[in-house]
Write a structure and sequence with these properties.
Layout lengths: L12 H12 L8 H14 L3 E5 L2 H11 L7 E5 L4 H9 L3 E5 L10 H14 L5 E5 L8 H11 L3 E4 L7 E2 L2 E2 L6 E5 L12 E5 L2 H11 L22 H12 L1 H18 L6 E3 L6 E2 L5 E5 L1 H4 L3 H10 L5 E2 L15 E2 L2 H9 E4 L7 H13 L3
Parallel strand pairs: 2-3, 2-4, 3-14, 4-5, 5-8
Antiparallel strand pairs: 1-9, 6-7, 6-11, 8-9, 10-12, 12-15, 13-15
Helix pairs in contact: 1-8, 2-8, 3-4, 5-6, 9-13
The structure holds pyridoxal-5'-phosphate.
Length: 374
């Protein structure tokens, strides 16, 4: 019985071939034809005009903040219910995250709280310099009101779509819904380059600037000349080749993860105290992770007991994000609301959703959870 991981990479013959072709071409550097092609192909898929391939999603967030002008002392709205990288990037540029709770109806940043907080801050003359939204576990945030609010107040919107490549909001692709969009190709994502990311936007000017900053801000001289400080954030051409092969299989991966979500719904149907992450009517997720909420009183066991039972049969599962306003590193950071994501954290569990998960592996997860019900 082999271990079942939460969301392991899945690579095949096409990945191997494209990686070796890049290797044989000797483009083993952070420049090369696969990078150019990966940027073009990803931009097309994300419904944007321009993209720059980077070494991680975190690097993309960092550059995205710099591009829209966030700097020391600025405030930036960030959902509390997300991975630490979203807020870490805000701290990298010397700005202050302001955590905003999520809606119980879709687990993403609550537009009503954003609206309220903007009204209060407009009166005080202390508007945030940017708003970051996160398309969580593969489901986009609710952009109609968020985009309208940001426009009304003239605040740039950074879409952290690290987990949501291939998802849509009212027919529009994740990544295209803000001023800039961010993707991650970390090993656990729906497509991976082992590590990598992409910053996307319709503005050529913004993406050219990001490419400059990601290349040590080297000025166009034959010698090394620098008029500002940049970063070493470019993706390797080898990894871009891997990413291109993965991107070709994106639709199949989404479909397999959708079926896994459906199979969990069928397998866990009828169990009292088990709910799934709500699927919002406004879009189509990429089904990256399937998450459930356990009510311990009704189910007869709590989230942690279930996680340990799964671990005992070599199944990796993970509690949903611990909200950032409850993280020691962000102790004392301003927070708007917070009860909703704290509640999800107490009860939430992410289940294995790797696109290569087999029927018998699925059954191992489902049977173990069912056996915990008393
Ligand atoms: C929501 C979110 N933002 C940002 C990141 C950071 O991406 P990376 O690991 O590529 O730096 C991740 C995942 O790792 C993520 O889930």
């Amino acid at each position: 019985m082999s271990r079942i991981y939460l969301s392991p990479p899945e690579v095949g013959a096409e990945e191997r071939q494209m990686l070796l072709d890049a290797f044989d071409s000797n483009w083993i550097a952070p420049v090369g034809p696969d990078i150019d092609a990966f940027e073009e192909e990803l931009a097309e898929r994300a419904g944007v005009d321009h993209a720059v391939a980077l070494s991680s999603g975190t690097a993309a967030l960092h550059l995205g903040l710099l591009l829209v002008g966030v700097g020391p002392g600025d405030d930036v709205f960030v959902p509390s219910f997300t991975f630490v990288a979203t807020a870490a990037a805000v701290s990298y540029v010397g700005a202050n995250p302001v955590f905003v709770d999520c809606s119980a109806s879709n687990w993403t940043i609550d537009p009503a709280l954003v609206a309220e907080e903007l009204t209060v801050r407009a009166r005080r003359g202390r508007l945030p310099r940017a708003v970051i939204t996160v398309d969580l576990y593969g489901q986009t945030a609710d952009y109609d009101s968020l985009a309208t609010l940001c426009e009304e107040y003239g605040i740039p919107l950074i879409e952290d779509a690290a987990e949501a490549l291939g998802a849509t909001y009212r027919g529009r692709p994740a990544g295209s819904l803000g001023t800039v969009g961010v993707f991650s190709f970390n090993g656990n994502k729906i497509i991976t380059t082992s590590g990598g990311g992409m910053l996307v936007a319709d503005s050529a000017e913004l993406i050219d600037r990001a490419r400059h900053l990601a290349t040590q801000a080297r000025d166009p001289f034959p010698h090394y000349e620098h008029s500002e400080l940049g970063y070493n954030y470019r993706l390797s051409n080898l990894l871009a080749a891997l990413g291109r092969a993965q991107l070709r299989g994106l639709d199949g991966r989404i479909e397999r993860r959708r079926r896994i979500n459906e199979a969990y719904r069928v397998g866990l149907a009828g169990l009292p105290g088990v709910e799934f992450m709500p699927v919002a009517a406004y879009g189509e997720p990429n089904w990256w992770l399937t998450c459930i909420l356990i009510d311990p009183d009704r189910f007869g066991a709590g989230r942690e007991e279930i996680r340990l039972a799964l671990e005992s049969v070599d199944v990796e599962s993970r509690p949903t994000w611990k909200p950032l306003h409850l993280q020691p590193v962000f102790d004392g950071v301003a927070t708007v609301g917070g009860a909703s994501c704290a509640h999800i954290f107490e009860r939430g569990l992410c289940l294995p959703t790797g696109s290569a998960l087999s029927e018998s592996e699925l059954a191992r997860v489902v049977d173990t959870i069912r056996a915990m019900h008393h």
